[in-house]
Amino acid sequence: MNNHIKKLIERYNYQFPKELIAQEPASPRDSAQLLIYNQKNHSIKFDNFFNLTKYLPHGSILVFNETEVIPARLVLRKETGGKVKALFIEESHELVKVMADRKLIPLSKLFINKKLFFTVQKQEEKFYLLQPSFNLRILSQILEKYGETPIPPYIKNTPLKEGELREKYQTIFAKTKGSVAAPTASLHFTKRLFKKIKTQGFGVEFITLHVGLGTFAPLEEGNFKLGRLHEEKYFIDPRVACALNHAKKIGRPIIAVGTTTARTLESASLKNGKLKNLNGATDLFIREGYRFSFIDGLITNFHVPHSSLLMLVSALVGRERLLELYKTAIRKKFRLFSFGDGMLIY
User: What are the backbone dihedrals phi and psi of residue 39, each rounded to the nearest 5 degrees, phi first?
Assistant: First the structure.
């Protein structure tokens, strides 16, 4: 990586105590802390998430990502008996694309059990393509039975067992299987908070973006040279698009819940402020200099240093301002990252 890009990435660094990395979500979910930042008057307020509606702009519509996290991590055994941790990424031409925690040898076998195994076909950059010994149509069943919840690598000491993780690292409205990471800003929402949002006249709509490897992957030189990120598949129901386009037209604020929702809406709106591309894949890299065309606000968590997610939020509020907000939150002992506390920017 050249020095210019290294320096650019380093501008998105900040210091934090390791003990602020949340190892499990708040309980109940909506008791998490909330930092509220008003971009017009630069005011900062603090509350808990259950009181979100006190701060939402009048007439807001909240847009959520209803993707469902799959138990995408498999612990496999090599023919020699050694363990391999493989993260399922996607199906690719009758093969399974994974990331592995160690080097794999082509044509070697990786066993789930005596009857179920994969054969390593080839390596493509940091991925491996595996040939399953079973029909790919039952892959989702295999993952449900033998897979583990793919929590991020910085959650090292969670007290939660696998059964608890499958519930807690999942939004309460998850509907369409396909993600290897949760849309974490949505983890704060509960049934009682949804009821409050709707009874107070705010709108709620859902889109789908399947969160991919990019959530965990460090930025590389190619991301900046090409101006693109990893590709992620998304879908917006035409009825939802129609409702959101109408809301945008009459001036109702669109609040994206999470960076995945923000990325989807911006990708679908083609920079003209109207949702048109409703079904596809996005490699949109949102960073400073980007002008948002569809969203008016964002609910998000506190993101890892040097990450594309931190850059996306910086594009909305400015890098220096965002890092100041992070410093303030850290002084207030806000919990960080996927299971951490939240922020409303409007």
Answer: -70, -25
Coil, strand or helix at 164: helix
The 3-state DSSP composition of the chain as helix, strand, coil percent (nearest 5) reads 30, 30, 40
Q: Are 32 and 335 in contact (CB under 8 A)?
A: yes
In contact, 312 and 259? CB cutoff 8 Å: yes
How many other C-beta atoms are found inside a 10 Å radius of the C-beta of residue 316?
23
Contacts 24+ apart (CB under 8 A), 111-115: 111/76, 111/77, 111/78, 111/79, 112/74, 112/76, 112/142, 112/146, 113/146
CB proximity list for 313: less than 8 A, separation 6 or greater: 259, 298, 300, 303, 322, 345
Q: Give the predicted TM-score (pTM) of the model.
A: 0.95
- Whole-angstrom distance, CA of residue 177 vs CA of residue 212: 12
Using CA atoms, how far apart are residues 50 and 29, in angstroms rounded to an integer? 9
CB 200 within 8 A of CB 60: no
Q: Is 220 helix (H, G, I), strand (E, B) or coil?
A: coil
Would you give per-residue pLDDT tens digits along the chain (346 residues)?
Answer: 899 999 999 999 999 999 999 999 999 999 999 999 999 999 999 999 999 999 999 999 999 999 999 999 999 999 999 999 999 988 988 999 999 999 999 999 999 999 999 999 999 988 999 999 999 999 999 999 999 999 998 999 999 999 999 999 999 999 999 999 999 999 999 999 999 999 999 999 999 999 987 666 789 999 999 999 988 999 999 999 999 999 999 999 999 999 999 999 999 997 788 999 999 999 999 999 999 999 999 999 999 999 999 999 999 999 999 999 999 999 999 999 999 999 999 9
Q: Which domains does the chain have, with CATH numbers?
A: 3-69+165-345 (3.40.1780.10), 73-146 (2.40.10.240)
The residues near 303 (Cβ < 8 Å, ≥ 6 apart) are 259, 309, 310, 313, 337
Integer CA distances (angstroms), 329 to 36, 311, 314, 335, in order: 11, 18, 16, 8
